[in-house]
UniProtKB/TrEMBL annotation:
Residues 208-224 have a biased composition (Low complexity). The lineage of its organism: Eukaryota, Metazoa, Ecdysozoa, Arthropoda, Hexapoda. This is Uncharacterized protein LOC111358450. InterPro entries: T_IF-3_C_sf, Translation_initiation_fac_3. Keywords: Initiation factor, Protein biosynthesis. GO terms for cellular component: mitochondrion.
């Protein structure tokens, strides 16, 4: 074998190795026309990861899971797809942060369900000098509104020196009558008036509410 033949052989082997190496790296595919098309490298399960210190990083889901196990953290998905990056967003949380987040979500869902069931608001005003019969009539109206899924705002207006004591007694009477079908919230004193709200309870009914009777024909009577 002469010098030129040896040189040609070395060149041929070098070109072949280069082509094999290129094929391994690019992983070309052939299209319908018989042409080589370079297959684009894909990144499966790429996510945006938020660390406990709120720093951002881009990684894959498996690596994020490994990090959470090593650091004894919870890996929580907080967004399915980010509108800008088109990646899901996960966050690493401590156990206390995770439980606080779960509690917050439960409260939000509970409030959303409650707000969805409330038809509207009704305001009822009572005098601190109201008589017992008129008070019971007013309570019946409150209960009817609550049963119809209305939020009832009640104002007990003070009209004399003993207004605070009388208003508290009226409040206690109302509370005893409606406790089985409504929830009383935001009780407060403003000026000479005592104010609070009645919120419907799911599945509430006027049955078993104490001193209510079966006479429901006085809807438009009383002080309210």
């Amino acid at each position: 074998m002469n010098y030129f033949s040896l040189n040609k052989l070395v060149t041929t082997l070098g070109v072949r190795r280069f082509l094999e190496f290129r094929t391994m790296k690019t992983k070309t595919i052939i299209n319908a026309e018989g042409k080589d098309v370079i297959k684009k490298k894909t990144y499966e399960n790429r996510i945006t990861l938020i660390s406990p210190d709120n720093s951002l990083s881009i990684t894959d889901l498996k690596n994020a899971q490994n990090i959470s196990l090593r650091r004894d953290l919870k890996l929580v998905k907080i967004q399915d797809i980010d509108s800008k990056t088109r990646r899901p967003v996960y966050k690493l949380m401590t156990n206390s942060e995770y439980h606080a987040e779960e509690l917050s979500k439960r409260k939000e869902k509970q409030m959303a369900r409650q707000n969805a069931s409330i038809k509207g608001e009704k305001l009822l005003t009572l005098s601190s000098r109201i008589g017992e019969h008129d008070l019971m009539t007013g309570i019946k109206k409150m209960m009817k509104l609550v049963e119809k899924q209305y939020e009832v705002k009640v104002v007990i207006a003070g009209e004399d020196a003993e207004a605070a004591i009388k208003s508290e007694k009226i409040y206690q009477t109302i509370e005893n009558q409606v406790r089985n079908m409504s929830k009383i919230v935001q009780k407060r004193v403003k000026g000479n008036s005592l104010r609070f709200q009645l919120l419907p309870v799911r599945g509430s009914s006027t049955e078993g509410t104490g001193n209510t009777d079966s006479n429901q024909n006085d809807n438009n009577n009383g002080p309210l």
